[in-house]
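User: Quick sanity check before I run a bigger batch. Here is a single chain. Can you write out its predicted 3D structure?
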Amino acid sequence: MNDVTTWDAQDSVDFATLLEASFDLEQPERGDILTGTVLAMDNQGLIVDVGLKRDAVVPRSDLERLGDDFHCAVGDEIPVMVIRPEDSEGNLVVSVAQARQIEDWTKAEEALANETIFEGIITEANRGGLIVPFGNLRGFVPASHVMDLPRGLDENERKNHMADLIGRKISVKVIEVNRKRRRLVLSQREAQSGRRAQRKEALLEELKEGEVRKGIVSGLRDFGAFVDLGGADGLIHISELAWHRVRHPRELLNVGDEVEVYVLRLDAEGKRIGLSLKRLQPNPWALVDEMYHVGQLVEGEVSRVTQFGAFVSLEPGIEALLHTSQMADPAPADPTELVREGDKLLMRVISIESHRQRLGLSLKEVTEEEKAEWRARREAQGSNGEVAESAANKTTEAVEEAEAAEA
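Assistant: Done. Predicted structure follows.
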């Protein structure tokens, strides 16, 4: 009796010890990341020792999701994620693919924080955007973040355009990471913008004011022209396009033109590069003193009219000022009562300040006799031009008649 009692007590102690030891082993839960050692490999998958009383199983289907990039051998240590603490057969089922995705989510968050730009291959496309893998994750590039997407496409055209991009390598930047919603959003537009910003910083350190560079006209705006200097743009303000007045950059430039530009100013803090075209051209004001003198009669064309007068284009590409006080006596309240843009006028030079790029004109100091002689000369030139044109037309007609007769 005593022996039986002793045996029961010992058995109870051993059972309690085993029970306590089993509780000491932390039981895995769904989503836990474990590190295991590969014990065996076969057509069914992997058996992995994860340091528990039972081994973990990696199904074959999970390995197939990894594709040809996954390689391992018996004895290798690999991370796995628990997807079922216990299946119907009591196995601990784990996933290598999902463990790798956890690592990739962490890398994606780091890429977002560091504003990292990376290259990827477009693997899928639809009208909404592109799919670019990020490790084992599917990164999505919305159509609004795809560069050079033509505007005005209908649904089928956009879908076909996107499909043509499959297989291409593009640079993208992570702009959103949401693990819970399994949402990873990428942007090609932000990547290009980021690279251009980096290139501009490098250019600002590399460039020097006063040097000449070659570039490609990348854009035209009302206020000037942008020139790509090799991955970063500088701006030629409209006032720096030419010595004469330019209404719009398209009068002188087209997108895609190769041009030589003068580096006018650098603003490292504001990250601006100011360029000039006219600084590489002869300054017409340097010729003014040789071409004009006070009291000289000149012919010019009104280029613009303001409240205080009119600007007049003169050779060799300068603008002179005809002030309202020099238009008539009394001065007109509105200059457009006397002159309009495009008018050709005979005026007298009344002041020259070439060093300040100023030349003053007067309309009222031209006599009626001088105006009459000027008009007569213009009419004569016009009629001579008409006579010459008529003679040319008759010659052409005669030649055509002779050719017809020969035929």
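Residues 368-406 form the longest helix (39 residues).

User: Great, the batch can go ahead then.
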